[in-house]
Each structure stands twice: as structure tokens, then as C-alpha cells.
């Protein structure tokens, strides 16, 4: 499909064939065309969103969808990772049943990663699968969660333990929605962005360092560039390995310890913040292996800090290092042979290592732990 001047586009393939487009815009002016392509006439759609996003964008999106669908209903849940549960998914499904949704009706995910993951999961299991599309509104969900078809919920405090690979019909990124994020939620996205740089794009490190001031001011032109570049990285990886049988695991750089820290923080820390700390531990472990220099570790620390991200956790905040190490074993990134730990062997290149020992992880954890 031709690209419109105000909407950029990247097509994502699955097994070598076109699967869905990711659209990039500074507003919702191109959304109608994407919706029209789904043949919405006579169909119903449920917009799933959270209590933070609804006041800003729900009416706007509802107005657009009402021009195309026979019926638009909405489902709003309390914002936060605490809502990413089977109970909320059950509630969404009940709403669909009560409103007579059939196989041809659709879901729209309007919000961050929690919204996208839960809505996609609900779509994947309702009547064995109905269409859904992603309208990510956070930086983290734009550059990571909305692309690649991972859907699911947390289960008994284990992150993303229950879910499915299920592809959206399209992803529509409206960069303007980044303006209404709190600083904490905006900067959280840089956890995944800096991760992308370390695993696949060393020059992105320079770009971030050179443009930090403008990015902190949320310059829309630069943000469009940054998000597009990150989706390209994510697309490259998920196209090569859509169901994480190999390469896709590199996206888990910083996540093995990061998820265990997130669990122990009782969700006081945001996902992207835990990824930042987890990346610092993995970078230090990469240095200890002789892959990168001490100076490069210091550069990373400076970069995460520039984007207001934590690089440490404190013992006085109740973190228990032994338990963090033990929890890495329960993470779903484990396979029968052990943890698939992601290290870098140079800036911009990740390796998956199954030989990382508890002692080695402990060294990484000690590096980020303030005693
Ligand atoms: N967020 C990691 C992945 O999509 O594989």
C-alpha cells in the first residue's frame, strides 16, 4: 500500500509473508483508513483501555470508530500492572458475550503494554480468535510491546506466564499521545530503547546521547524517528524468529534479573525501570567476561541516568538478593537446560548464553545493589 505523506508505514511479515502494518503518525488522521480496510461494516468493536488513558483518548478514538462499526462498546480497567490478570480478561470476555460479539467482531487495544497484552490475549481466545488492533499510547508499548504478537497476563505474580502468540490486524502509533504521559511512564520506555541499542544498534547509543535534550522535551519529529528506528529493530528480530525459538530471546537482554527485581519490588518499580537495572547487571557481567570495557559499562550507566532511569536497587528497600537469583529460575525465559541469559559481546551485539551460573548472576546483581 502506498505511504501517505503524514503516515509512515512498516510492514511486518510472518513466515516470509505480509502479516500486518505498523503505522506512524503525529495524530489519528490515518486511523480511519486502517479501520476501513478491516471491513467493519455491520460489525461491533470493543475498545479496551485503562483509567489513565480513557480521559485523554477514548472519546477521540470512539468517534472515529463509530463512523465505521455498527456498534462500539468500551471497557475501562484500573491502570497498572496489577490489572494484568486472568480476572480482568474474564471480565472483558463476559462483556463481549453480554454484547453479543461474534467471530466477525473485533477488539481495539488503546493504551500501554498491559492493555495491549491483555486485549490481544482476550482476542486470541474469544471464540478461538477474533481480530484486534493495537493503538499504543506509551513509549514502551510503541517500541516494544505492541509489535511482535506476544499477548498474555501475569499469573500468581509471575510475569507474562499465561498467554499466546497472536498477531494484531494493525498497529497505529500516534506519537502525540506521548505528550500526556507522566515523566516516569515516558522515561520508562527508554529502558527498552537503550536495550535495543545494546543488542542490535550501537549507533543508536550515539543518537540518544546526541539528542538527549530534545528527546527529554519530547520533540515530535525526533520521537517519530526514534520510534520508527526501534520498531525496525523489533521487526527485524520478530520476523526472523516470531515464536522465540532462538534469536528473539535477545530481546530479553536485561529481563532475566529485571523480571525477578520487578516481582520483588511488588510492582513499585515499572517494567522499563527494572529492565534498566537488569541491563546494567548484564552489562557488568559482559564486562567480567571480557566482552566490553569498564568505560563502556560507565557509558551505559550515564545513558540510563540521562533518561531518568534507575541503575541501582537498594538493600534497604527490602530486596533479597538470594531470592532474586532464585526467582530467575521461575522466569519463563528458562528452558529445560537452564536460563537463556543474554549478554553482549560488543556494543550492538547480543549473545544468548546458557552457561551463566548463579555466581556469575550474583556478581551482576551485586554491581547494581546498594548495600
Ligand atoms: N518484549 C520481548 C518480545 O517481544 O519478545
Which blocks of ≥5 consecutive residues have pLDDT under 50? Answer: none
Number of helices: 14
**Share of residues in strands:** 15-25%
SSE-based structural type: alpha/beta
Number of strands: 15
H/E series: EEHEHEHEHEHEEEHHHHHHHEHEEEEHE
Radius of gyration: 20 Å
Residue share in helix: 40-55%
- Give the names of the bound compounds: glycine
The best one-word shape is globular
Largest sheet: 4 strands, parallel
The end-to-end span amounts to 56 Å
Q: Could you give the order of strands across the largest sheet?
A: 4-3-5-6
Mean pLDDT: 96
Short description:
By secondary structure, the chain is an alpha/beta fold. It is built from 14 helices and 15 strands.
What does this protein structure show overall?
This protein has a four-stranded parallel sheet with strand order 4-3-5-6, sandwiched between helices. It is an alpha/beta fold and 371 residues long. Helix 6 packs parallel to helix 11 (271-288). The protein has 14 helices and 15 strands. Strand 13 and strand 14 form a beta hairpin. The relative contact order is 0.11. The mean pLDDT is 96. It is globular and about 60 Å long. The protein has helices at 31-36, 54-66, 86-98, 113-125, 139-145, 183-200, 202-210, 212-216, 220-240, 255-264, 271-288, 294-306, 321-328, 358-368, and strands at 7-14, 17-25, 44-50, 71-77, 106-111, 131-136, 150-155, 158-165, 171-174, 313-314, 334-335, 338-339, 341-346, 349-353, 369-370. The structure holds glycine. Residues 144, 148, 150, 248, 251 line the site of glycine. The site of glycine has 5 residues, from loops.
